[in-house]
Amino acid sequence: MTGWGRLGGTGAVAGVALVMVLGAGTPSAALPAAARPGAARQPGPAWQAAGGIWRVVPTVSPQAAARTQSALFGVSLAGAGDGWAVGNLVTTVANPQGGPRLVVSRALAERWNGTRWRRVAMAQPVTEHALLQGVADLGSGDAWAVGFTGDVAPGTSFPSGGLVEHWNGTRWLIASTPGSSAETLNAVTGTGPHDVWVAGSMNLGAPPPAGDNTFFEHFDGTSWQAVPGPAGNFSEDPVEVTALSAVSPNDVWAVGTQNPELFGQPGSLNLAAHWDGKTWSVVPTPSLGNSSSQADVPTGVTAISANDVWASGVEFTGCQAASARGSQLAAGGRGPLLPLALRLGPGGLRRLPRATGQCLVPYVLHWDGKTWSLIKTPDPGAFGSALEGITALSVSDIWAVGQTQSSAAGPVRTLTEHFNGTSWSVVPSPDPGKAGDDELFAVASPGGGQLDAVGGAAVAGDPCLTDVSGTFCLRTLALHTTSG
User: Fold this and answer.
1) Domains of the chain by range and CATH?
2) Closest C-alpha among 271, 272, 340 to residue 303
3) pLDDT digits (tens, 9 = 90+) for 45-77
4) CA distances from 351 to 412, 447, 451 (A)
5) Which residue has the higher pLDDT, 19 or 102?
6) In 3D, which of 187, 194, 137, 141 has the Cα closest to residue 162?
């Protein structure tokens, strides 16, 4: 296969944790700003799964006593005491036109110092939403974060461009990239200060014209340049890159979905692309499903060596988004698609007519230097489970994280799985929120047995849960272990 050509239809889905929830009702609907007395209970290190290796470490969940929302979608560690996690805070601001306050998303970053997470101020687009989805920590004075922005105005809830921010050792600054007005950026990776990649999806019809492949961008230490992706007709089969991982400047992997469109439209299949130092090319990958009610979504990738690469994923089968679960800023501007976080929330998914079995099927992909293979991983949820991130400590020590659900209306629980060189198994993980929705969106390791996973938890007693009917409420969540 020479390009991102059509591989056949599967059920459609776009993005994984790529959408920010803006609250109940229309995008301009108000979330009351006043905080209620008493802070919501925050997860702490004492909350640990019985017999598990994981412990919850405190994170800074901004405005935790207010009717707001925050979550962490990406994490990266340069060392045992040096890491970054990024996400967003959904809050409200005054409406310049008067009337109800506007719901907005602000970029959120927290830094790990080996003991605790602390919030670090991000550069915020003045008049736009901002959400960060991925981060690459290249050293104490060099980190990159990516996401997207969106217009803040009544009736507006779509992205208006990609967002790239750089940590220079002192502060975060917004970087100017060639495609920032046309992209939604989902992933970032790098091998050093002179080799950084970002990728995501193209807003079809925005410059560059539809059909252009330039949804990859590269930083050489001096400037950013758009790099053509694999050849293909994006006006017919749009591609969304969901994750990146680099072995060397001449060996970089991207995974994502082909045709990430609306539910009910032709669906998505796994796709992998490889950079050899000169060009991006598609490498064929297997998929679980091939019908209009199935969609395979790779969610993370970790490259150990040229002959050993792993990707995490989830297949949606016989399911579609339930109605009336709040408004959102849809990745890529292709429609009101719910994030995986929202779909996995109790009531967030419903089965299609005559569909049976599980709605969600977790899997991993493995590259052995010659071909990609697909492996179904343990699924502890009767309704289904999803893997949203993956990392490797060694060739026989691979970890993936996500969430699991016993029924469509049942609680969502954290999920961690481990590969020991022979097989995958579920490892117990804590669910500190106590309100039926605890999810992990990313995991990273600096080596030495250390693992850090991030996500969100719906915390029992949270004003957001009790006062904002229909809103999907999360607070930042982090798990840590040195026994990986």
Assistant:
1) 47-481 (2.130.10.10)
2) 272
3) 333 444 489 999 999 999 888 878 899 999 999
4) 17, 41, 35
5) 102
6) 187
